[in-house]
Design goal:
Blueprint: H1 3-15, H2 28-51, H3 53-74, H4 76-82, H5 84-95, H6 105-130, H7 134-154, H8 168-175, H9 203-211, H10 216-238, H11 242-245, H12 247-271, H13 276-307, H14 315-341, E1 371-374, E2 380-382, H15 389-395, E3 413-418, H16 428-436, E4 443-445, E5 456-459, H17 479-483, E6 487-491, H18 495-507, E7 512-516, H19 531-534, H20 549-553, E8 555-558, E9 563-567, E10 572-575, E11 580-582, E12 585-588, E13 592-594, E14 607-609, H21 613-625, E15 630-634, H22 638-649, E16 653-657, H23 670-683, E17 686-688, E18 693-698, E19 702-707, E20 712-714, E21 717-720, E22 724-726, H24 729-733, E23 742-743, E24 755-757, E25 762-763, H25 772-785, E26 800-801, E27 808-813, E28 822-826, E29 835-841, E30 844-852, H26 860-866, H27 874-879, H28 884-887
Parallel strand pairs: 1-5, 6-7, 6-12, 7-8, 12-24, 14-21, 15-16, 15-21, 16-17, 23-25
Antiparallel strand pairs: 1-2, 3-4, 3-5, 9-10, 10-11, 13-22, 18-19, 19-20, 26-27, 27-30, 28-29, 29-30
Helix pairs in contact: 2-3, 2-7, 3-4, 3-8, 3-13, 5-7, 6-10, 10-12, 10-13, 13-14, 18-25
Length: about 900
């Protein structure tokens, strides 16, 4: 990393340091003194309002209220520490007597709007009631202390008030969106996921995440609050007393002022080429400065009144000048935070493409003792710990099926004829996969197995299932008989459902297992469905179970069958065929559905999603029936790129439209995405980033895509690979707790103790949906839990690998150093079309990007799986000796 980039990365890391990681500047005891002192001031003000009403009113409106906005701008974390409402809100949690319930997703989304309405109502009513009525103001303050306490009593974290319904929260977020001083949050020592884009966790990033939220309603009303704020302030301070002008005229004046501010915001948004954040920052700052223009005289008057010091009249202008200076700093800090927040998403320039013909390695001259031979084809390659059997076979020109390249999908089992002792030891993941396939002891997974030395013979033409089965393991305790669980139903036959079924059978040989599968196909490699587009063998070769699996496991699989309802009280599942299935335990594993972007024309014939085998075969049939010549893929993630490559091989002209600034932007850094983009372009695939589709055009069927800038891209096929939506309808109708997915605990248990949810369908904070490893791990955890064996869920390593010939693309975790203890190490002597990056923290890998010719990502799977200590070889890596990675593996 160059010096300039390093400094920029450091600046980015410090800019978005979470509150929880900010160093503590004051002792905890002192913070408690400040909290109690602040509470005493508030309660003292309430007492003064009753004893000396006018003095209390002056104290509150002329001194206390005018001080808060400048605190919100300079150090909002300070206020979050000492706020008396925050204190009462957190008392139940600190005392251990709160119910800690989870606020519903709908309420979380609507909470900001509720807070805004309360804030606006309080400001409007102030002229009518609170400015002159000390008793009403005292009641309001007391209520503002009781409501947070009740919210904290019922809901977890700060979701009962501070992070949701507090009417001061919107104004804090508007003024404190780019704090000048970071002060550590003293309440949320560990995050419990109580709110979205948590301001308490990372205040400088929260506003950007809010405004960029994919839900336009959620993002929109945050911007509109800032837009309306200057109008609210001007309207309030310029309004005549409603007692004199009438309440109707007063409301009309306020509404007109707010409407003018909103109109100005919208006009500027239409005229100026600036981001929504810049306008939000501009209007928030304008509101802050206008507030002090109006209150500075009363602030000076209040200080004179309560100190007895005779301040000259121009002191009010000094106060305003200070506020104006703080406003300038607020703008400067906000613009800096926006620049750094968007740094990682900056568009990249195109580079010269990869030389596709040079991507395959040649076999070096070697003796037979150094070679791995394939008896099926007669080809051979050099043995070595630095490449898998799959990579070696590919280098020799042997075509072999592959899937995730992590040993877990079961796509590439290979028969070992001789020299098994010379192979690397199988990992737990590989053993589980082989056992599921019924191949344990008869095959190895080519994508992860390495020949540590030569003398190995494999046979790619031999079906490993034809080899003799090893002796079965000794009988295990039947947990079904011990627990009384005798009927298990699983809805869904994807990775999550099938791994659950396999694990249930391991734990109980007696219980019945019935799998209800909507699809017509048995368990297959969903990561290979793109190949169904151009392959001529349909489902041949992508099945992931032995033909006798259901018989051998005594599992009943009901294909092409839909579960229509669940009766929790009777513990029954109703089927679309009219049948009813009884259960002791039920596992929901219906997965998710692909999302078609809701642009005009998305329902035209010729528009497809790509999520399952039927989708791929429908696309292939459409291409042939309508003699198509061009296609557009919406989405530049892994599936979108694989689909584009498959459509290319179906003899179509293909364009990828990616809404983000680069392909695979979640898994690849700028350089890695550059190389991938260049490779695709050399293959003839057009790549358009920052793409905004305005309309899908067609007369009777699809004919093209119209971009927001007016550009038209011809296409007779549109394939959307732009996200997924959990299939929650069945669970929701059954009355289970549902958010984006079905809500579960760490044992995959839903709100009904007899029903579990796994895979894409399940909603578990911190878990990543759409990944094979997550689904299979959750399936095993749920299966154990139904028998009372709560082994606990921990997120599996989620290496993402692009399944495409001629280029090796792998991404894992962080794509840049994200904290002070992380270091990004880039291989210095890389070729033009090769990129290796490791992100290391405390000697452990927390991120990786490997892009280049076949074999570039060797060792990555094992490194992610084993996570060895890289401390002893870090200096070697920094010097450019990346061969050391092979030596740290077991």
């Amino acid at each position: 990393m160059s010096g300039g980039k390093a400094l920029l990365a450091q600046a980015e890391a410090s800019e978005f340091t979470p509150y929880t990681e900010v160093p503590t500047r004051l002792p905890k005891a002192l913070w408690w003194v400040l909290r109690i002192a602040t509470m005493a001031v508030v309660l003292g003000t309430v007492a003064v309002l009753f004893v000396k009403p006018q003095t209390g009113l002056d104290l509150f409106w002329k001194l206390l209220v005018p001080v808060l906005p400048i605190v919100f701008v300079v150090a909002p974390g300070f206020w979050r520490q000492v706020c008396p409402m925050a204190l009462t809100n957190q008392i139940p949690r600190m005392g251990g007597f709160g119910l800690a319930r989870t606020l519903s997703v709908k309420m979380k989304s609507a909470a900001f709007l509720v807070a805004v309405l309360i804030f606006f109502a309080a400001v409007v009513i102030r002229h009518v009631l609170f400015n002159a009525n000390a008793t009403a103001l005292a009641v309001l303050i007391v209520a503002a202390l009781i409501l947070p306490f009740l919210g904290g009593l019922v809901f977890k974290g700060r979701s009962g008030w501070c992070g949701t319904f507090c009417p001061l929260a919107p104004i804090q977020k508007a003024y404190g969106q780019a704090p000048l001083v970071m002060v550590r949050n003293g309440y949320c020592q560990s995050c419990v996921g109580c709110q979205k884009n948590c301001y308490d966790f990372n205040p400088r990033a929260a506003i950007h995440a809010d405004l960029a939220d994919p839900d336009p309603w959620y993002a929109g009303h945050r911007a509109l609050f800032a837009a309306a704020l200057p109008g609210l302030i001007v309207g309030f301070f310029t309004a005549a007393s409603p007692l004199a002008s009438g309440f109707g005229s007063y409301l009309l004046h306020m509404a007109s002022s707010i409407a003018l501010a909103l109109g100005l915001f919208m006009a500027l948004a239409s005229i100026l080429r600036v981001s929504r954040y810049k306008l939000t920052l501009l209007f928030s700052t304008a509101a802050f400065v206008l507030f002090y223009w109006f209150v500075s005289p009363s602030l000076a008057e209040g200080i004179t009144e309560f100190t007895g010091l005779p301040f000259p009249g121009y002191v009010a202008y000094i106060f305003f000048a200070i506020a104006l200076g703080v406003g300038v700093l607020m703008v400067r800090s906000g613009l800096r935070s926006e620049r750094l927040y968007e740094l990682a998403n900056a568009p990249v320039a195109s580079v010269v493409g990869v030389n596709v013909g040079a991507l395959r390695a040649a076999v070096e001259t070697a003796s037979g003792a150094d070679l791995v031979a394939d008896r099926g084809t007669g080809m051979s390659f050099v043995a070595g710990a630095d490449h898998s059997l799959l990579e070696g076979l590919e280098s020799a020109g042997v075509k072999i099926d592959y899937g995730c390249r992590m040993g877990m999908c079961g796509a590439d089992p290979i028969a070992i004829v001789d020299g098994e002792d010379n192979l690397s030891a199988p990992s737990a993941t590989e053993l589980e996969t082989l056992e599921r396939l019924g191949l344990k002891g008869r095959a190895r997974m080519a994508c992860v197995c390495r020949a540590m030395k030569g003398g190995v013979t494999v046979d790619t033409s031999l079906d490993p299932r034809s080899l003799p089965e090893p002796e079965p393991d000794a009988a295990l305790v039947d947990l079904g008989e011990e627990t009384g669980v005798q009927r298990v139903i699983i809805i869904g036959n994807g990775a999550a459902g099938m791994s659950a079924a396999d694990e249930v059978r391991k734990l109980s040989s007696s219980c019945s297992i019935e799998i209800v599968a909507r699809e017509r196909e048995g368990f297959y490699n969903r990561m290979a469905i793109a190949r169904l587009l151009h392959g001529s063998t349909a489902m041949g070769g992508i099945g992931l179970q032995a033909p006798d699996w259901t018989e051998r496991k005594s599992v009943s699989v009901l294909l092409n069958t839909t579960a229509t309802a669940i009766d929790k009280s009777a513990r029954q599942v109703m089927l679309g065929t009219g049948e009813t299935l009884n259960y002791d335990k039920l596992i929901l594993a219906q997965g998710s559905s692909a999302v078609m972007p809701p642009v005009p024309g998305h329902d035209l014939p010729g528009c497809f999603v790509l999520r399952e085998a039927a989708d791929a075969m429908n696309i292939r049939a459409w291409r042939q029936t309508h003699e198509c010549h061009s296609a557009v893929v919406l989405g530049g993630g892994v599936l979108g790129i694989e689909a584009a490559d498959a459509l290319r091989q179906l003899n179509l002209s293909v364009s990828i439209l990616q809404r983000g600034p680069r392909l695979m932007d979640r898994q690849l850094d700028e350089r890695g995405s550059e190389i991938l983009t260049s490779y695709l372009k050399e293959l003839g695939v057009a790549v358009i980033t920052d793409a905004n589709v305005a309309e899908i055009r067609g007369d009777g069927r699809v004919s093209g895509v119209v971009m927001a800038d007016g550009q038209v891209i011809e296409a007779e096929i549109i394939v959307a690979c732009a996200g997924i939506r959990p299939n929650v309808d069945l669970a929701k109708e059954a009355g289970l707790a549902v958010g984006r997915g079905v809500k579960i605990d760490g044992a995959m248990r839903t709100s009904d103790p007899d029903i579990f949810a796994v895979g894409d369908l399940a909603e578990l904070p911190g878990s990543i949906s759409g990944l094979w490893a997550v689904s299979t791990t959750q399936g095993r955890v749920a299966a154990a839990a139904i028998f009372g064996c709560e082994i606990g869920y921990s997120e599996p390593n989620t290496l993402v690998s692009l399944k495409m010939d001629g280029i090796d693309v792998k991404g894992y975790g962080a794509i840049a150093a994200e904290g002070p203890n992380q270091e990004a190490i880039v291989a210095p002597s890389q070729g033009e079309n090769e990129h290796r990056l490791l992100v290391v923290e405390d000697g452990k890998i927390v991120g990786a990007v490997f892009v280049g010719p076949s074999g570039t990502g060797k060792h990555v799977t094992e490194l992610i799986d084993q996570r060895p200590d890289l401390g002893p070889v870090l200096d070697d890596l920094r010097r450019g000796d990346w061969s050391v990675l092979g030596r740290v593996l077991d």
